[in-house]
Q: What sequence folds into this?
């Protein structure tokens, strides 16, 4: 009878240790880096804690953000408009997303200006980035995807490769 509680307690300790290692790994990532908002509602605060007032309420999951600083489980982030503030790490995701900036972006079948036009995306459209190389990124916007020039996206550095 006592073996079951000890076994359960042992498994729980292993699970907690595994989660702790993941959180520790997330803490060691060096800013700046791009991430995205994971939560349906995410508050940006003026400082790293719930006692600081909220300056913005984001209701746009997948919006790309740039992490510029870390303090414990808080991240100082910058949004596509340049607004900076603090968000709790649990509201964020490592999923790479891109925000169409400038004019209408052309999504192509291949990473070339001569490739067939597959779609067009208006400024402000957000999509998930699956890969980037040599100035081109493949972006998926709700099932419609294509290659877009990295210069048309906020959420990826111009010379960055994403796998």
A:
């Amino acid at each position: 009878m006592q073996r079951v509680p000890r076994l359960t307690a042992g498994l729980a300790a292993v699970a907690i240790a595994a989660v702790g290692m993941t959180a520790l790994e997330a803490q060691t990532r060096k800013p700046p880096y791009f991430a995205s908002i994971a939560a349906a509602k995410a508050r940006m605060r003026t400082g790293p804690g719930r006692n600081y007032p909220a300056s913005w309420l984001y209701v746009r999951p997948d919006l790309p953000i740039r992490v510029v600083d870390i303090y414990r489980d808080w991240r100082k982030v910058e949004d596509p408009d340049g607004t900076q503030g603090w968000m709790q790490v649990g509201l964020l995701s490592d999923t790479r997303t891109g925000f169409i900036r400038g004019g209408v972006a052309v999504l192509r079948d291949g990473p070339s200006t001569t490739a067939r036009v597959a779609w067009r995306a208006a400024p402000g459209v957000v999509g998930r980035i699956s890969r980037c190389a040599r100035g081109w990124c493949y972006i998926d916007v709700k099932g419609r995807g294509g290659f877009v020039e990295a210069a048309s996206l906020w959420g990826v550095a111009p010379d960055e490769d994403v796998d």
Q: What stands out?
A: The domain at 31-95 is CATH 2.30.30.40 (SH3 type barrels.).
